[in-house]
Structures are given as C-alpha cells and as structure tokens.
Specification:
By secondary structure, the protein is an all-alpha fold. The chain is 77% helix and 0% strand. It has one domain (2-120). It has helices at 2-25, 28-31, 43-66, 71-93, 100-117. The mean pLDDT is 96.
Length: 121
C-alpha cells in the first residue's frame, strides 16, 4: 500500500505543484490561453488557489516522509479532491462539460490518495 501511495502522491504532487506554481506566479495574460476562466475569477482568488494547490502537494509528501502529523496527508488529498469538485462546477457553469474529464481523473486520484494515506494512521 505504501508503494501505491507514493506513486499516486508523486503524480498528484507534480501536477499540483506545477499548476499551483503557474497560478501563483504567472500573469493573467499568460494564464488565459490554458485557463480561460481566469477572466471570471479575481486574480487574488487565482493566487490563493495556486497557493492551496502547492500546500496540498506538499501535504501529500511531507507528513508521510517525516512521520509527523501524517493525518495531514489525508487532509491534503481530501482538500485537493475538493479543488477538483470546484473545478468541475466552474467548468459546468461555463458550458465546458467536455473538459471535466481531467477533473474527474484528478478527483479519483485524490480520493485514492486519501484512502491509501490512511495506511499511516
């Protein structure tokens, strides 16, 4: 179970670290081509979302690595699943049902990570 967790957690951490870093550091103009929704959401909210994604990625990795507060890995995975649910709601409200496939995949991976992280509890 530990090996499976590390595979899923590493994939999620890479994705959320990259996506969160882009949201946190890049301008609205540079984000617009791949995230058309940034025009509808205030940039401070986009920045907060990016910071939360980075914290979630770190939360998947650091608690199990250090053995300190390992319940935070479960919380991070659940939080990232909630991010995907919010993303699906946003895409559906914009009439972009075809793009929620990626949200569903990362929602499922986050749920699996939450379940696998319980091995440390």
């Amino acid at each position: 179970m530990h090996v499976a967790y590390w595979i899923v957690a590493a994939l999620l951490a890479l994705f959320y670290g990259f996506a969160g870093g882009k949201k946190l550091l890049e301008s609205q103009e540079r984000l617009r081509p791949m995230m058309g929704w940034v025009d509808q959401i205030p940039m401070p909210c986009v920045r907060v979302l990016g910071a939360l994604e980075i914290l979630g990625a770190l939360g998947l990795l650091l608690p199990p690595l250090t053995g300190i507060a390992v319940v935070l890995a479960v919380a991070a995975a659940v939080g990232l699943a909630l991010v995907q649910i919010g993303g699906m709601a946003l895409h559906l409200s914009r009439g972009e049902a075809q793009v929620i496939v990626i949200n569903v995949v990362f929602l499922a991976l986050s749920a699996v990570a939450a379940w696998l992280a319980t091995a440390w509890l």
